[in-house]
Design goal:
Largest interface: A-B, 14 and 15 residues
Oligomer: heterodimer
Distance between the termini of chain B: 65 Å
Mean pLDDT of chain B: 88
CATH architecture of chain B: 2-Layer Sandwich
Order of helices and strands of chain B: HEHHHEH
Strand order of the largest sheet of chain A: 2-3-4-8-7
Order of helices and strands of chain A: HEHEEHHEHEEEEEEHE
Largest sheet of chain B: 2 strands, parallel
Helix content of chain A: 25-40%
Shape of chain B: rod-shaped
Mean pLDDT of chain A: 87
CATH topology of chain B: Protein Binding, DinI Protein, Chain A
Low-confidence stretches of chain A: none
Helix content of chain B: over 70%
Structural class of chain A: alpha+beta
Distance between the termini of chain A: 50 Å
CATH superfamily of chain B: Skp domain
């Protein structure tokens, strides 16, 4: 009886441990998962006509974006190593009405001054609360919309905490729209559930 | 037959009156009020920005105090001549006045900016709260006469403070 009980405990532990491991998928499955589940990795809120949005970008996704879906397994491993110290977020802003680069413009502002702010100064106004750590933005890249997309988009990089995956809170304290500190949240579970991309060795 | 006829009519009239009564009561419940100052002071962003502003003001005051100390040291020295204080004294005094004016303007500008940020967020959250709870009007009572009296059952101040802080921190 005791042996059966112990066996049951071992089996249960094994099953639970197996369930904790992220599922391994190929490129198509990985992209399909993200397509269906971006909403879990994204948070938005609207304040006074401005929509603030933050999205967690898995490093593997960024690698596929840059090098294509035909990337070799060795190249994937190399790029994973290169990006291992950082975590990336896409931060976007949009005006509910009109063009955000001209929305509620003050007398002293111009479209160029806003462009300059988002290109060169926005990084100092973004921070990440990763669990209990508050991290500043290490690097950011402004992606111009050329007046075509309603969104202003910034790619922000933060130091990666190598502790267990924690809830991520992005803080945006933009100095254009005077809305104060805006906090957006990505739950830890959404990040833990991302499957692991596996390529067959070529 | 006639009795039944009147019974039906009376029942319908009673039901209509009852429905109007309930509707009227439910409408009155839709108008609530909040204590503006309490909500403002209870908002976490306000507390954070107030601390930030106080730190900036303290740092600036320390700079002014340092200049003031040097002025006092010069004027207390044995060879100080009030009729001819010297170039250093005039220079420091000018610097003190210039900095004082600059800091006052900057402090005011910063305070106004922070207030703007706080009210931008507060107004949005109160609007969201009103929509979620189907309120018709939310009055802001500032203790200066716009609401002289209202029943405590209509006071949403405490619930609103919890709501806006949870919204702000994305709890």
């Amino acid at each position: 009886m005791k042996e059966y009980r112990n066996l049951f405990i071992y089996l249960l532990t094994f099953v639970l441990a197996a369930c904790q491991q992220p599922k391994q998928v190929n490129v198509d499955q990985y992209l399909e998962y993200l397509d269906k589940n971006w909403y879990k990795l994204t948070d938005s809120r609207e304040l006074n006509g401005i929509v603030y949005q933050a999205r967690f970008l898995p490093n593997d996704y960024r690698i596929l974006e840059r090098f294509g879906q035909e990337i070799a397994s060795e190249k994937l491993q190399t790029e994973r190593q290169n990006l291992s110290d950082f975590q990336y977020f896409q931060i976007r802003l949009k005006a509910q009405t009109g063009n955000i680069m001209e929305y509620n413009m003050e007398e002293y502002e111009s479209r160029d001054s806003r462009q300059y702010y988002y290109t060169h100064e926005f990084a100092r106004d973004i921070f990440l609360i990763d669990g209990t750590d508050t991290l500043r933005c290490e690097a950011h890249q402004f992606i111009s919309n050329y007046g075509i997309s309603p969104w202003v988009s910034v790619l922000a990089a933060f130091e990666r905490s190598h502790k267990k995956t924690a809830e991520k809170r992005i803080g945006i304290n933009d100095h254009i729209f005077h809305n104060g500190k805006v906090i957006l949240k990505i739950p830890a579970s959404a990040i833990s559930q991302i499957p692991q991309l596996t390529l067959s060795k070529s | 037959m006639k009795t039944t006829h009147w019974l039906i009519i009376n029942s319908i009239i009673l039901l209509v009156l009852l429905a109007m009564g309930i509707y009227s009561l439910s409408q009155k419940e839709k108008n609530v009020y909040l204590d503006t100052a309490e909500v403002f002071n209870g908002f976490k962003l306000q507390k954070e920005l107030r601390t930030k502003l106080e730190n900036v003001q303290s740092a600036r005051q320390a700079i002014l105090d340092s200049i003031q100390l040097r002025l006092t040291a010069i004027s207390s020295s044995s060879d100080f001549d009030p009729q001819n204080p010297g170039e250093e004294f005039f220079s420091l005094r000018g610097l003190y006045q210039q900095r004082q004016k600059q800091f006052e303007e900057d402090n005011q500008r910063l305070s106004n900016e922070y207030d703007r940020q706080i009210w931008n967020q507060l107004n949005q959250y109160v609007k969201d709260y009103g929509k979620e709870h189907n309120y018709t009007i939310i009055f802001g009572a500032n203790g200066q006469g716009n609401i002289m009296y209202a029943s405590e059952t209509r006071d949403i101040t405490k619930e609103l403070i919890d709501y806006i802080n949870n919204k702000y921190e994305r709890v």
